[in-house]
């Protein structure tokens, strides 16, 4: 019973962070039709941001706020310099962002060295959760991720900007004709998506080993999550990440993490192959 | 003779004469670049001609490399002849590509970016399997794989390797060009331009793509086999993500829609890398990445592809016949 509870908590932790990653990917893909292969590197940049700011002597909470913003700025610069030149060429966005990921990864190697770093975890102690001792920081990670997800939904469904963004997703040309500044929305969206990845990296930084190649391990599950559930809605990545994360955690509990990853990848490939519209489209078709 | 064949002949003559201007040790480096070029050609055929962007193409290269290693090290019940190694190194990736391709493309099938991401995930799966397989040496891979044996002679003389592999590369490009000009190749181009139209005209587009994928996988496997028998070492890094990414860079920089340009891309990037990695060290991958991004944005046809296309256009203008 106790171990099941801890397992559930750990799984929700992983799932919530994966949700953040795939939400960022889905926002960028949905609005801009850009497949961002550099998303994993944005996550790693968030973690390195925390590391650097901590070295500079800032308190951990400040690092958590500033690091994602820095990543969002880097995303903004990348959009302006690179991504906007490949719009309308879907496969070229893959290549361009792939190149970007190579440059970012090697840039991190140059600055911080190829080895892994550890971010000092804020000492928050442990609390009893339903009679089990659980580290407080992991609960904080969950709360922050959930809050960021809720914030994203709030922006998209309760603000004027979100309404404009959804208009662009539905029909870019019509939205532009109605006077929506799609260029500005593209910039904001890419920065926002990058910032979400940066936040995921920042909150996870004390829990993972921070090394330049850590991004790939998040990118592929993130993509599989959005493809499994289906593109075209914001709830897709949430559902997909829940599915992918849950299967991963379950398989890892039964076998080893390596086999869990293989199981998830193969299962996701099979789902994507047979339901290219995503699993959520099935429900819509029946309704 | 068309302008295009003249360019191709000149490039071939250049590489035939190149050993005169090089020290012997550099020849074996070039022989290895030629195997990379064969791999790049297999990717350019699939990507440029059929329009399928495979983000995990090293899977087939790696399978060929491991098949060759396993056979020539005598780890199977088969005799450890190079011939059997090469045959398996072509057949195993071919069969894997055929099975995966049938799975991907049958009926509605995967297209565009979906195909790319699935192939990327598969590269992870295969790399993981190679790492966790103790039979294949796990993380360390297979070591001291012997060179190719032809009629009882081990081939390790750099000059022989250089010309042998140059010949094979030229042959591969020629073969694929013949395929591309055949009825099958024209149908593949039709699938690339508009798959729905090709299907509406009654062509089995899924089957066409499966066979193109299989052919590309077989050539990648051959390149892998030729690579390990020179390099002597098959490791999980040959099968996974990083080599796939590198091959994409070669092909994008060289030129995706021209096989010779893709081959030149592989050879040049590798050569420049070996020249500059001493001076630039860890900065080199950043430079390569920046060049790659620049070429994707400004030169979608690639450096050599663009140059050759311009030369051909210039030729047509000055020579109205």
Write down the overall geometry of chain A.
globular
Structural class of chain B: mainly alpha
Summarize model confidence as the mean pLDDT of chain B: 88
- β-strand percent of chain B reads under 5%
Distance between the termini of chain B: 11 Å
Shape of chain B: globular
Number of domains of chain A: 1
Unreliable spans of chain B are none
Summarize this, please?
With 287 residues, chain A is an all-alpha fold. In chain A, 75% of the residues lie in helices and 3% in strands.
Any overview of this molecule?
- The complex is a heterodimer of chains A (287) and B (321).
- Chain A has 287 residues and is mainly alpha-helical.
- Chain A is globular.
- Chain A has a single domain, classed as ABC transporter involved in vitamin B12 uptake, BtuC (Orthogonal Bundle).
- The N and C termini of chain A lie far apart (38 Å).
- Chain A contains twelve helices and two strands; from the N terminus they run ααααββαααααααα.
- The longest helix of chain A is centred in the first third of the chain and has 31 residues.
- Chain B is built from 13 helices and four strands.
- In chain B, the strands form two sheets. Chain B has a two-stranded antiparallel ribbon with strand order 1-4. A two-stranded antiparallel ribbon of chain B has the order 2-3.
- The termini of chain B are close together.
- The interface between A and B is large, with 35 and 39 residues.
């Amino acid at each position: 019973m106790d171990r099941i509870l801890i397992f559930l908590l750990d799984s929700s932790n992983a799932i919530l962070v994966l949700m953040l990653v795939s939400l960022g990917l889905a926002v960028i893909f949905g609005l801009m039709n850009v497949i961002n292969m550099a998303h994993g590197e944005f996550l790693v940049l968030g973690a390195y941001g925390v590391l650097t700011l901590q070295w500079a002597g800032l308190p951990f909470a400040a690092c958590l706020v500033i690091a994602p913003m820095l990543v969002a700025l880097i995303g903004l610069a990348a959009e302006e310099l690179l991504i906007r030149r490949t719009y309308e060429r879907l496969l070229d966005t893959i290549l361009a962002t792939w190149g970007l990921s190579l440059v970012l990864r090697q840039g991190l190697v140059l600055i911080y060295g190829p080895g892994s770093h550890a971010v000092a975890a804020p000492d928050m102690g442990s609390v009893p959760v339903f009679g089990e001792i659980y580290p407080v920081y992991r609960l904080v990670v969950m709360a922050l991720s959930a809050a960021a997800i809720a914030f994203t939904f709030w922006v998209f469904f309760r603000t004027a900007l979100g309404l404009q963004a959804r208009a662009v997703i539905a029909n870019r040309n019509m939205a532009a004709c109605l006077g929506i500044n799609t260029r500005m929305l593209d910039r904001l969206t890419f920065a926002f998506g990058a910032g979400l990845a940066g936040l995921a990296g920042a909150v996870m930084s004390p829990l993972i080993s921070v090394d330049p190649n850590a991004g790939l391990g998040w990118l592929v599950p993130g993509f599989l999550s959005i493809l499994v559930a289906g593109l075209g809605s914001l709830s897709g990545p949430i559902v997909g990440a829940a599915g992918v994360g849950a299967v991963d955690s379950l398989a890892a509990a039964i076998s080893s993490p390596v086999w869990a990853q293989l199981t998830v990848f193969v299962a996701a490939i099979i789902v994507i192959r047979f339901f290219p519209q995503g699993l959520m489209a099935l429900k819509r078709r029946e309704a | 003779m068309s302008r295009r064949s003249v360019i191709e002949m000149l490039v071939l003559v250049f590489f035939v004469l190149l050993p005169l201007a090089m020290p012997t040790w550099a020849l074996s480096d070039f022989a290895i670049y030629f195997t990379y070029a064969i791999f790049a050609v297999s990717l350019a055929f699939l990507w440029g001609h059929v329009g399928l962007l495979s983000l995990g193409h090293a899977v087939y290269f790696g399978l060929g490399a491991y098949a060759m290693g396993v056979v020539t090290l005598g780890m199977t019940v088969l005799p450890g002849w190079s011939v059997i190694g090469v045959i398996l190194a072509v057949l195993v990736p071919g069969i894997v590509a055929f099975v995966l391709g049938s799975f991907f493309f049958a009926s509605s099938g995967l297209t565009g970016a979906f195909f790319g991401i699935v192939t990327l995930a598969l590269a992870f799966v295969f790399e993981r399997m190679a790492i966790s397989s103790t039979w294949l040496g796990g993380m360390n891979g297979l070591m001291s794989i012997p060179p190719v044996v032809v009629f009882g002679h081990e081939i390790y003389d750099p000059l022989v390797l250089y010309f042998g592999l140059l010949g094979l590369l030229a042959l591969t490009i020629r073969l694929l060009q013949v395929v591309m000009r055949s009825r099958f190749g024209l149908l593949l181009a039709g699938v690339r331009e508009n798959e729905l139209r090709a299907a509406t005209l009654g062509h089995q587009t899924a089957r066409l793509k499966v066979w193109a994928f299989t052919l590309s996988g077989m050539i990648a496997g051959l390149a892998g086999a030729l690579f390990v028998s020179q390099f002597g070492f098959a490791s999980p890094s040959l099968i996974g993500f990083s080599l796939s990414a590198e091959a994409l860079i070669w092909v994008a920089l060289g030129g995706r829609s021209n096989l010779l340009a893709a081959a030149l891309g592989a050879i040049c990037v590798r050569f420049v890398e070996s020249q500059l990695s001493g001076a630039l060290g860890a900065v080199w991958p950043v430079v390569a990445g920046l060049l790659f991004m620049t070429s994707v944005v400004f030169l979608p046809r690639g450096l050599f592809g663009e140059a050759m296309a311009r030369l051909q256009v210039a030729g047509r203008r000055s020579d109205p016949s």
